[in-house]
Amino acid sequence: MPKSISKPISKPISKPAAPKVAKPVSKVPKLLALPKAAPKPISKPISKPISKPAAKPAAKTIIKKVATGKKPTTASLSDRLIKMLPVGDINYQPGVDPLVNIPIYFWSQTPARFTALVPILDVVVYVNLTPTFTWSYGDGGFEVSRFAGAPYPIGPITHTYKKAGSYLVNLKITWTGTWSVNGVTTPINGNAITQSISTNLDVVSAQARFIQ
After folding, report:
1. 199, 169 in Cβ contact below 8 A?
2. 103-124 pLDDT, tens per residue?
3. How far, in Å, CA of 181 to CA of 115, rounded?
4. How confident is the model over 186-210, as pLDDT tens digits?
5. Average pLDDT of the chain, as a whole number
6. For residue 35, with 0-12 CB atoms within 10 Å meaning exposed, 13-18 middle and 19 or more buried, which class applies?
7. What's the CATH code of the domain at 177?
8. Where is the PKD domain (predicted)?
9. Which domain holds residue 105?
10. What is the pLDDT of residue 56?
11. Is residue 178 assigned to a domain?
């Protein structure tokens, strides 16, 4: 038997394996994490307490008294003078059982002039006064005089009652004059400086007697 010719077994031509191309591995370099800067603390402005200025004590007002700069008022001066003036009085003659239709003499012992140095409002006031006398006899009669009167027989102030009875006699003394301070003289209103005195007067009737 013929020998079989063994055909060469054709081995499949293996294509050379494609060379492996190493793909470049693009490694992304890892970013190094930079150390985070610690956040700076925001410094808040420290509000300092506003210190109020200490209140200064109020300055005391010093009032100086200047004697020459003050001027006394008439009202205040009158109040002082009323207490200093001599006490007025009423005198009459005859002093016992004056009769109707017979003149009665009236007078006052008030001086004809009054002078004084009066300290008031830190100044010294020189006062010079004279009186005016107004007599009211209680029966409607009256008399004004610059004189104080006098007893019998020289007294200029007299009054005659026509009827017996009890009468209220009044004497009003009005002082007028001037006051002076530092050489400046000013008149005083006399109506503000007055005195008033009263007394009861009993007038009797005369008894007629027949003499044989």
Report:
1. yes
2. 999 999 999 999 999 888 788 9
3. 14
4. 887 656 688 999 999 999 997 766 5
5. 75
6. exposed
7. 2.60.40.10
8. 132-174
9. 70-202
10. 44
11. yes
107 vs 153: CA distance, rounded Å: 12
Q: Please enumerate in sequence order all residues whose Cβ is within 8 A of that of 51, keeping only pairs 6 or more positions apart, or say none.
A: none
Burial 88-120 (b: 16+ CB within 10 A, else e): bebbbbeeeebbeeeebbbbbebeeebeeeeeb
What is the spatial distance between Cα 64 and Cα 130, in angstroms, rounded to a whole number? 36
Q: How many domains does the chain have?
A: 1
Question: CB–CB of 160/102 below 8 Å?
Answer: yes
Is residue 197, in this structure, part of any structural domain at all? Answer: yes
- Give dist(CA 103, CA 160) in Å, integer: 4
State the Cα–Cα distance between residues 8 and 125, nearest whole angstrom: 174
Cβ contacts of 59-65, under 8 Å, gap ≥ 24: 65/122
184 domain-assigned: yes
How far is residue 88 from each of residues 118, 135, 178, measured CA to CA in Å? Answer: 20, 13, 21
Residue holding tokens 């956040």?
Answer: 39
On whether residue 33 sits in a domain, the answer given is: no
Q: Which residues contact 113 (CB under 8 A, 6 or more apart)?
A: 128, 129, 130
Token duo for residue 58: 């109020």
The reported pTM is: 0.61
